[in-house]
C-alpha cells in the first residue's frame, strides 16, 4: 500500500504552511474571510492538483508516443455549490496544445489515456463532480 503524508502548521490568523514530499506551500484565505491574501487557496489547489496530475501523465505520454508539440497548457475551472460545505459540482478541463502540424489523433489518445486511465486526481474528482474535457489545438 502506498501512503502519502503532509504536515500542515498554523502560522496564525488564517495562514498555514504545509509540507509535502516535494516542498513547502503557504496556504491562506482571502481578506474577505479574515486572511491576508498571502498564500494559496485550498480549493484552487485542488484544481491545480488535477492539472498537475494530468499534465505529468501527458508529458510522459508525449515523450513515449513521440508526439511533436511546442508546448501545452491546461486550464481548469470549477463551479462551487451554493450551500455549505461548498464543493466543486462541475469542473471544466481544457487542454491546449501548441505547435506546427499537430497530430490531433495522437494528442486525443494521449489526453484520453490521462483522463480515463492514469490520472488518480481526475478519478477522485469524478466521485463528486461532473468533469467536462475539451482539447484545443493552436498553430505556433
- Output mean pLDDT: 97
In CATH terms, what is the architecture of the largest domain?
A: 2-Layer Sandwich
Query: Largest sheet, if any?
Result: 3 strands, antiparallel
Strand content: 35-45%
Structural class of the secondary structure composition?
alpha+beta
CATH-defined superfamily of the largest domain: K homology (KH) domain
Number of helices: 3
Predict the CATH topology of the largest domain.
GMP Synthetase, Chain A, domain 3
Number of strands: 6
Rg, alpha carbons:
17 Å
CATH class of the largest domain: Alpha Beta
Cα separation of the termini: 44 Å
Number of domains: 2
What does this entry look like structurally?
Helix content is 32%, strand content 35%. With 140 residues, it is of the alpha+beta class. It folds into 2 domains: 40 residues; 98 residues, K homology (KH) domain (GMP Synthetase, Chain A, domain 3), CATH 3.30.300.20. The strands form 2 sheets. The chain has a 3-stranded antiparallel β-sheet, with no helix packed on it. Strands 4-5-6 form a 3-stranded mixed β-sheet, with helices on one face. Strand 2 and strand 3 form a beta hairpin. The radius of gyration is 17 Å and the shape is elongated. It starts with 6 loop residues before the first strand and ends with a strand.
Amino acid at each position: 500500500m502506498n501512503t502519502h503524508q503532509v504536515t500542515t502548521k498554523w502560522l496564525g490568523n488564517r495562514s498555514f504552511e504545509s509540507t509535502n514530499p516535494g516542498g513547502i506551500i503557504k496556504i491562506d484565505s482571502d481578506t474577505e474571510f479574515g486572511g491576508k491574501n498571502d498564500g494559496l487557496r485550498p480549493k484552487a489547489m485542488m484544481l491545480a492538483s488535477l492539472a498537475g496530475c494530468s499534465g505529468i501523465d501527458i508529458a510522459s505520454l508525449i515523450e513515449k508516443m513521440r508526439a511533436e508539440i511546442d508546448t501545452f497548457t491546461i486550464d481548469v475551472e470549477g463551479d462551487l455549490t451554493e450551500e455549505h460545505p461548498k464543493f466543486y459540482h462541475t469542473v471544466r478541463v481544457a487542454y491546449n496544445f501548441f505547435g506546427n502540424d499537430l497530430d490531433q489523433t495522437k494528442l486525443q489518445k494521449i489526453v484520453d489515456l490521462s483522463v480515463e486511465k492514469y490520472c488518480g486526481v481526475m478519478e477522485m474528482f469524478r466521485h463528486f463532480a461532473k468533469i467536462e474535457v475539451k482539447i484545443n489545438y493552436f498553430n505556433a
